[in-house]
Amino acid sequence: MTDAERRAALEEIAGEVRVCTRCRLHETRTKAVPGEGDPSTEVVFVGEGPGMNEDREGRPFVGRAGGLLVNLLGHIGWSREDVFITNIVKCRPPGNRDPEPDEIAACAPYLERQLATLDPSVVVTLGRHSMGRFMPGMRISQAHGTTRVADPATGARDATVFAMYHPAAALRTPGIERESYEDVALIPTVLTDARARRAEARRVSRAGGVAPIAASGSAETPDAEPVSADAAPQAEPLTADPIVPAAQPTSAAALPDTEPAADQLSLF
Ligand code: URA
Ligand code: SF4
Q1: In sequence order, which residues have a C-beta less than 8 Å from that of residue 167 and are 6 or more positions away?
Q2: Does 132 reside within a domain?
Q3: Distance (Å, rounded) from C-alpha 81 to C-alpha 61?
Q4: Among the atoms of ligand 1, which is closest to the Cα of residue 88?
Q5: Is the pLDDT of residue 32 over 70?
Q6: Angle, vertex CA 148, rays to CA 143 and CA 152, nearest 5
Q7: Does 39 map to a domain?
Q8: pLDDT digits (tens, 9 = 90+) for 44-65
Q9: Fewer Cβ in 10 A, N or C end of the chain?
Q10: Domain limits at 181?
Q11: Is residue 164 part of a domain?
């Protein structure tokens, strides 16, 4: 898909979201919030649902939580325009209550189509509800700062999922804010590793779908096939070591260890 085709597909989804009546949240919303960002990005952030400011403006993460999200992105040299930002439910739950399971289910096809269009390398979940879609059964206190290979049923056909706390939780609790800065600092490495894993999966599929034997000294076979979240109940703790060390593309190897510039996002 070209950039223009991706942009058009995302705009079509957004148009449907703005007039959607698939669940009761449409009755109390001011504006639906489809999501926004760079149609060519490799990284998608998925929050919970719009709050008061988002409902008023029709844009995601524009209130206090959004301010912290922008600061977290700034910590790794990125801006909100470099990524795509959306939510599990696109309309504000009244009084900022948690979204109900039937509302999440009704809204899921929009997120799936956004992810299918963007085909991100990395999906960053913000908070419990978003994590629940991509890492079912996990606890946020254990899952934050860890990765999973995305279940392609989420719409993200070949992505690494990275869980973070919700910025609103970080605003309430200084310890969580500190952990969120630690977690966000891992994202450039998560992206580098995700690119390598995708490149390896493509190489394997070109070679006829036969997965290679793991490199000697490595306990892990590269994930040629995305595994579903329930097939891999243990979250994978991030280390400084790449997940697939043998498959580092040269562009990734050229990335500095610290503070990547925003434009390095579109290297691949
Ligand atoms: N919190 C969310 O989860 N999403 C937003 O868009 C804003 C606040
Ligand atoms: Fe439609 Fe999602 Fe809004 Fe419900 S929350 S009305 S499913 S866009």
Answers
A1: 61, 65, 66, 68, 69, 72, 126, 180
A2: yes
A3: 12
A4: 3
A5: yes
A6: 130
A7: yes
A8: 999 999 999 999 999 999 999 9
A9: N
A10: 3-191
A11: yes
Q: How far is the CA of 63 from the centre of ligand 1 (A)?
A: 8
Q: Is the dihedral of CA 202, 243, 138, 85 positive or negative?
A: negative
Distance 48 CA to ligand 2 centre (A): 13
Return d(Cα 97, Cα 86) in angstroms, integer.
18
CATH number at residue 70: 3.40.470.10
Q: Hunting for tokens 């000294």 — which residue is that?
A: 217
Measured in whole angstroms, the distance separating CA 19 from the mean position of its chain's CA atoms is: 25
For ligand 2, the distance from its centroid to the CA atom of residue 198, given in whole angstroms, is 32
Residue at token pair 């990335």: 255
Quote the number of domains for the chain.
1
Ligand nearest to the CA of 55: 1
What is residue 217's DSSP assignment? T
The candidate with the shortest Cα–Cα distance to 266, out of 43, 80, 64, is: 43
Task: Tell me whether residue 81 is in a domain.
Answer: yes
pLDDT confidence band for 138 (50 / 70 / 90): very high
Query: pLDDT digit string (tens) for 81-94?
Result: 999 999 999 999 99
Q: How far is CA 219 from the centre of its chain?
A: 27
